[in-house]
Amino acid sequence: MNFYSLNKKAPKVSFKEAVIKGLAPDKGLYFPEKIKSLAKDFFNHIEYFSNKEIAFEVIKQFVSDEIPEKELKKIIKETLNFDFPVVFLEENIATLELFHGPTMAFKDVGARFMARCLDYFNKSKSRKKVTVLVATSGDTGGAVASGFLGVKGVDVVILYPSGKVSDVQEKQLTTLGKNITALEVNGTFDDCQAMVKTAFLDTDIISNKNLTSANSINVARWLPQMFYFFFAYKQLKNKHKDLIFSIPSGNFGNICAGMMAQKLGLPIKHFIASTNVNDVVPNYLKTGKYNPKPSKQTISNAMDVGDPSNFVRILEIYNHNDNELKKHLSSYSFTDDETRKAIKLIKDKSNYVADPHGAVGYLGLKKYLSENSNNDSQGIFLETAHPVKFLDVVEPVINQTIKLPKQIEKVIKKKKIAISISNYEQLKKFLLKM
Ligand SMILES: *Cc1c(COP(=O)(O)O)cnc(C)c1O
Predict the structure, then answer these.
(1) Statement: the pTM of the whole predicted model exceeds 0.85
(2) What is the CB < 6 Å shell around ligand 1?
């Protein structure tokens, strides 16, 4: 299986090269050349497959023979060492909990898978050391730090905006040490992202270092996110209802993976991209115009993205046909006030504590179902992070303290170690002397 650049000005590459490069030399995102539907029989008998077996079926055409079957199965086994339960809340509304991994956000799946692929590719040949450079608005940093910790031949450098991530998130990315370095940027997430982009274009750096990204632009982080849409189907299949997924979206990698799952034949009726006030995509569906904007800070900070990088992949999946896209996708935006009210409502109604991102997903689902009501629909919103990661937002709203899970208790006591930087020159200097 080869991958082409969506900018169409770079050579096709193998899975391995796509993973190592991250972004194509023409700055385009990589996209698989072919997408083969899975056998009917697989869907008919999915309940007899373990999650690991399902994941193998789903990913194998994309990895092809670049990782031998036995190794790929091992990578999947190590990636998926936690559960993905569907929890029913209201009539026709359930949530798919994606937060049972080590950093309690869905990004653990992609980060763990990608780290292990890079590890394998590093072992098979004596390659130059790889430096993973990543900007985070909150959750990416922790998941990447945890996923890559101790992986040989890989150094990880994480940029995060000072004072704009939650305490738990900050601890998760600044306390691990070893091959992980956190750079605390005096600026916004957009500043962090801009610095990372500049570094990827800086010949002084790329002639010296093997830089790669661990954002969802990397195919090894993006594609494994298909897995849990299948896991949800496995749990919901016997209800014989139309599945409608609402995905709290920022960079649109997660929802784009769901759309790939649909391409593989997974019976998903409709997608809802639920966003905070960073509403580029809801506006696109309304006006047909894609207008990127600087991101605005919200209480669902992992979705504070003003120019979602994966949206071009979504357009590619639906052949740049807006009518086709609208058949499969609705998108709504919600304010922080609405999000807080939703957290309260879910708690009062279902005695369930949602995090701000999940609450945005809930709102999108409710809105869609109210406009397209149908007894044959089963709505599922993704709970993309555990509420404990957003204590300062959630606790006052539900007026209750949240018990720290053991993953978090461990990390919260550790000492933060970060290097402060305020401009690109400082980042460059740091990278060059690493
Ligand atoms: C990253 C993240 C999102 C957004 O996911 P995208 O794939 O960027 O759309 C939503 N919720 C949480 C908790 C996240 O960490």
Answers:
(1) yes
(2) 105, 107, 139, 216, 248-254, 302-303, 357, 384-385
